[in-house]
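Exercise 7. Predict the structure of Methyltransferase type 11 domain-containing protein from Nyssa sinensis.
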Amino acid sequence: MGSVSLKIGDGTARFKRATVCSSAVNALMLFSVITTNLFALYAFSSSPNDHQGYPVLHTHKNISLISEQVSLILREIDASQKKLAQMEKELLGYESIDLSRPNIANELKLFLQHHQLPLGKDSRTGITEMVASVGHPCEKSMDLLSQYMNYKVNGPCPDDWSLAQKLILRGCEPLPRRRCFAKSIPKGKNLSKDCVNCFDLVNGFENQRYVKGRGKNDFLIDDVLALGSGGIRIGFDIGGGSGTFSARMAERNVTVITATLNIDAPFNEFIAARGLFPLFLSLDHRFPFYDNAFDLVHAASELDVGGRLEKLEFLMFDIDRILRAGGLFWLDNFYCANDEKKRAVTRLIEQFGYKKLKWIVGDRVNGSGNSEIYLSAVLQKPVRV
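Solution. The predicted structure, encoded as tokens:
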């Protein structure tokens, strides 16, 4: 948080809206201007005979009229400032969550309280108060959010990871912080049928992934790393499952962060147990990284957010944002439901102007015996001015 500047005349005191003091000064100046103009109007419009007949009475009448007009103007200014402040809060989402609802946990009310800055408005950011960081879509899941925040303060946190994940998948992200202690040994999770061998690092396919391909769409890590100009040092894996991609990269001195949820399996716990970096994050969340941070971004079919092309477009722009110029975007076995989906995804990718270092579209027979279309590509981000 920036400090509040108290310097005057050097350009540091910049305000987008009037403060209380500046509002008072503006009101006083406005009063002076109005008073001066009204007296001038009275002086030029009244005749000499008027002054001779009843100068005192006429003067008091005009002063009273001026006072009423000025009071009306000041009330309108005050009402306008209050309306602008309310509009600002509504636009910023400060009051999007109604805390007056019944059955809302006290911890949630306490966390969402606003805190005024001790030195007033910050000259660099224009912020006047600290607001709790919580996703606006939480408003649509207040019952679940209140349940999540209903716990014993300074006690053990409830074993409610599934509730937290449900809120995240509903867009309630980030979640509010809690004042409870997480359990050292979390409750076991049942594996889904799609993850029967995803934790088998000895006998399962995880042992061969990225070092031995099963088809033409499977690229090998060493081949992709050889395409990186300027070297690959740090990467980001989207929907990385059990973290095998990060593990293979770590063997080659490349640090990779894996973003994943615990969908039907404890992926985050398993990745951390392998000595890797898990990030509990949904794909609807803006990636918490600065621009041009990564040399490599790897993603598979998890990139397809609900099958909606506009959602994928927003996601692609965020990937482009965190990938440095010259960095590689590895699209690994992206599932295309049909040729139309493949063409739509192709058009979306091509609008970014990436150089196609590898581009393979292949068919694969699924468990039902039907042929499916998959796209694998290694793309290089261009330099933009």
